[in-house]
Amino acid sequence: MIVLGVDPGLRITGYGAIACNGEANATVIEAGVITPDADAPLERRLGQLHAELIEVLESARPDVVVIEELWSGYKNPATAVLMGHARGVLCLAAHAQRIPVRHLVHSLVKRALVGSGSAGKDRVKRMVMQQLGLRVPPEPDDVSDALALALAFANIERTEARLGRLGVALSR
Length: 172
What we know:
By secondary structure, the protein is of the alpha/beta class. Helices cover 49% and strands 17% of the residues. It is built from five helices and five strands; from the N terminus they run E-E-E-H-E-H-E-H-H-H. The chain has helices spanning 42-60, 77-96, 106-114, 121-132, 141-165, and strands at residues 2-7, 13-19, 27-34, 64-68, 101-104. A five-stranded mixed beta sheet has the order 3-2-1-4-5. Helix 1 packs across helix 2 (77-96) and helix 4 crosses helix 5 (141-165). The radius of gyration is 16 Å and the shape is globular. It starts with a strand and ends in a 7-residue tail after the last helix. The model has no long low-confidence stretch (mean pLDDT 88).
């Protein structure tokens, strides 16, 4: 299974595609950032974000796209609205390619990777490096966050599959 994690943003959107094979460690297929023109009007930045994600989807050919859920604690509600625009465009790009989209909150990502929903970015980044066998940390943080999303989804899916084989239902 190929999972594409996406950390949405209007200035920088991180992405990371990983290949997962059953119990084996995941490997990075492709990772990077999309950086729309910060001086462009909103509609142009959203168009750039959409077009560049389509290119990533065509290159990585993921089975699923995992996008970080909006965090409700934004100090500035306008930031949340802008993030909503970015998330909407990313969902649209995946839908246009007929790729299912899943959404994970950051605390679930942290729990799935390090066992604690309040883990710091450094712990999450170290776990991303460990699980992907990386010698250097993914940079910038947006790429690390995107890879964390993809890994967390893969870990959750693997756990649910194991429990399903045992006849146990996992509630999120």
